[in-house]
Design goal:
Blueprint lengths: L13 E6 L4 E5 L8 E8 L1 H11 L6 H4 L3
Antiparallel strand pairs: 1-2, 1-3
């Protein structure tokens, strides 16, 4: 039984990334970041990154919807 590309092997390292809408995600540390995403500096196992995101991403509303117009 293998691992899915989203979860990767247990030894994989990940980074936390954020986009212009202040939405967070986990990305493989050894891969180029996708366009529109910036590394936050947080890194670790997938679970460590998910735990970090849970702490910092308290408002899931995209920034453009939150911002006064």
């Amino acid at each position: 039984m293998g691992t899915s590309p989203a979860s990767g092997p247990a030894g994989d390292r990940y980074v936390v990334v954020v986009n212009d809408e202040e939405q967070y995600s986990v990305w493989f540390a050894d891969r180029e970041l996708p366009a529109g995403w910036t590394a936050t500096g947080a890194q670790g196992t997938r679970q460590e990154c998910l735990d970090h995101i849970e702490q910092v991403w308290t408002d899931l509303t995209p920034r453009s919807v939150r911002a006064p117009r």
